[in-house]
Amino acid sequence: MAVNIPGIIAIVVFYLLILGIGLWAARRGAKKNPDGPESEDVMLAGRDIGLFVGMFTMTATWVGGGYINGTAEVIFDPAQGFIWCQAPFGYAISLLIGGLFFAKKMRAAGYVTMLDPFQQRYGDRMGGLLFIPALLGEVFWSAAILSALGATLKVVLELEINTAVIVSAAIAVFYTLFGGLYSVAYTDVIQLICIFIGLWISIPFALLNEDVSPIDTTTLSRLLFTPVNESVYNRTFNVTNTTGWYGSWDTAYTGVWIDYALLLSCGGLPWQVYFQRVLSSSSATRAQILSFVAAIGCLIMAVPSVLIGAIGASTDWPETSYGKDPATEGEASLILPLVLQHLTPVWVSFFGLGAVSAAVMSSADSSILSASSMFSRNVYKLVFRQKASEREIIWVMRGAILVMGALATILALTIKTIYGLWFLCSDLVFVILFPQLICVVYLQFTNTYGSLCGYIVGMILRLCGGETIIGLPPAIKYPFFEEPNTQRFPFRTLAMLCSFATILLVSFITERLFKGEVLPMKYDIFRCYSLDRAREEQNGPKATEVAMKDGGYPEVAFPAEGKYTPYDTSKL
Q1: Residue of 138 and 565 predicted with greater confidence
Q2: CA distances (Å), origin 222, targets 217, 324, 336, 429
Q3: Cβ-proximal residues to 62 (8 Å cutoff; 6+ apart), any chain
Q4: Separation in Å, CA 403 to CA 144, 274, 377, 566
Q5: Cβ–Cβ under 8 Å, residues 80 and 74
Q6: Helix, strand and coil in the chain, % to nearest 5
Q7: To 10 degrees, what angle do helices 65-76 and 284-313 make?
Q8: Among 189, 168, 157, 150, which Cα is nearest to 69's?
Q9: Which H/E stretch holds residue 368?
């Protein structure tokens, strides 16, 4: 297959458009701070994201390359179908939960990153420990979508995979480096518009293609084309019936379905990429409203991907210019770009392929910025350099953006099981960070001892459940286990609940032991209840001046009013 010149032109045009918007946004943000930007301006766009831009950038929290490609893939895959298409509903529910219970409280407290309340309550070192799953989730997510983009462009455009990944990552890093969240937010607007228009323009042409059957006739049963021989020049196919794009329900996998539903709904919350949008809102109420709007946006943006997946399942693929069935060739993950290229006119695929590449960049830039923000503030400044100036923090953050971008690119090019690693990391975010988030926001008695023990319990239980994609065998075989490596019990949810119960139990016990003077204060190694800390609490740091020392104080984790600003801990 020759190089798809129109497709390459489309991607170049869209990349130049995104780069131009990103640099314009960076310049616009710089004009608001003629004396030079502060770190908070770079991370949160000066907390001045308007309603229109906010709706787009909040929706882009989850709507990106993985979202639109993955939704179409699940619908098309004969082994899954609409019944297993959980991401659109799961992420929409997570945004609703975030808006109802977390967005308003986090924004009202004036935090800068998601990890701020953890470090305030549980201490800098515990905050640094919680940074690990948050960082891995963001970096592996960026690497996974860059890897997917490279594979897509290689198959569809015959473009060398390394070139596609490196150029895409370089552009995303470049405008993020100079504009921070200003650039990310404004490019999100263009990227979502490109995705929406590009995909919807393609759908009517694909539906009317002569090789596509009406999608309502393939809901329960469809044709599968399996090659009889391996010759690429003279292929014949066995045609069989298989499950349609609705999918089929197997009660034996009910536990798996529930596990993933809760993983998406609750595990979609404790991500810096979401709270970065929340904390950049101009007010707590607006942060809440934007979460609700984004939940609706997630569902709306999933509709074209669902239709494209259904179209792919209704296509007589051997009769198309592609000449083979992606379902039997192991290329179900490429169904969206394949439909755009082979079932639509050239000028239509021009917009569609540009939309796919724009979607990937929409995800990569925000994840790279999120990971860099957490490192520069919660690790570099609050753990190692409390006296670091704003200029120093900005340069550290820029360096972190380069490192995170390079790391994601290297992982995308070298690790074949990148999606498996991301699945494992996203599980750890659900199992470890979600119960920690509930505790730090709502359960005031929890402390560092409970947080650490809950972290360890959640980590062990999740790893013992195994992960087949990366070859990690299960050490614990839960009920309904299916040989050789399939856990049909919702073990991720069980691990999360055990982690949550451990935090509560250990916090309750240690509070009674120290406050009841059963144990001397000298054993309070995390200084949660020691006398000097109690005196500091009694005298009271101001609500706007909360100390970021080990142990923290539950009573001031969410100040009633005012902006959260950490003390210079060297003076304490």
Answers
A1: 138
A2: 8, 15, 18, 37
A3: 87, 91, 94, 95, 268, 298
A4: 16, 21, 16, 27
A5: yes
A6: 70, 5, 25
A7: 40
A8: 150
A9: helix 346-374
In the chain, the amino acid numbered 454 is G
Annotate 199-223 with DSSP letters as a single string.
HHHHHHHHHT-TTB--GGGSSSEEE
DSSP state of 546: B
- pTM metric for this prediction: 0.88
Distance CA 357, CA 366 (A): 15
Tokens 């856990």 belong to residue? 487
Question: Residue 482 in 3-state DSSP?
Answer: strand
Place of tokens 């034996």: 252
Pull the structure tokens for residue 339.
């439909």
Task: Judge whether 184 and 29 are in contact, CB under 8 Å.
Answer: no
- Answer yes or no: is pLDDT of 355 > 80: no
Asked whether 434 and 267 are in contact (CB, 8 A), the reply is yes
Task: Quote the CA–CA distance of 23 and 182 in Å, as a whole number.
Answer: 9
The model's pLDDT over 211-249, given as tens digits with 9 standing for 90+, comes to 999 999 999 999 898 887 665 555 688 889 999 999 989
pLDDT interval class at 550 (50, 70, 90): very low
State how far the Cα of 219 lies from the Cα of 222, in Å rounded to an integer.
8
Residue whose C-alpha is closest to residue 146's, from 365, 468, 326: 365
Would you place residue 566 in the very low, low, confident or very high pLDDT band (cuts 50, 70, 90)? very low
What gap in Å lies between CA 190 and CA 17, rounded to an integer?
9
Question: How far is Cα 366 from Cα 369, in angstroms, rounded to an integer?
Answer: 5
Q: Give the per-residue SS3 of 455-475.
A: HHHHHHHHHHCCEHHHCECCC
The residue whose two tokens read 């045609």 is 239
Give the integer Cα–Cα distance in Å for 552 and 449: 12
- Position 81 scores a pLDDT of 93
Amino acid symbol at 143: A
Q: What is the spatial distance between Cα 553 and Cα 533, in angstroms, rounded to a whole number?
A: 9
Answer yes or no: are the C-beta atoms of 234 and 338 closer than 8 Å: no
DSSP run (H or E) holding 227: strand 221-227
3-state secondary structure of 518: coil
Reported as type and span, the H/E element at residue 226 is strand 221-227
Beta strands in 231-362 (DSSP E): 237-243
Q: Count other C-beta atoms under 10 Å from residue 501's C-beta.
A: 13
Six-digit token pair at 303? 């509709």
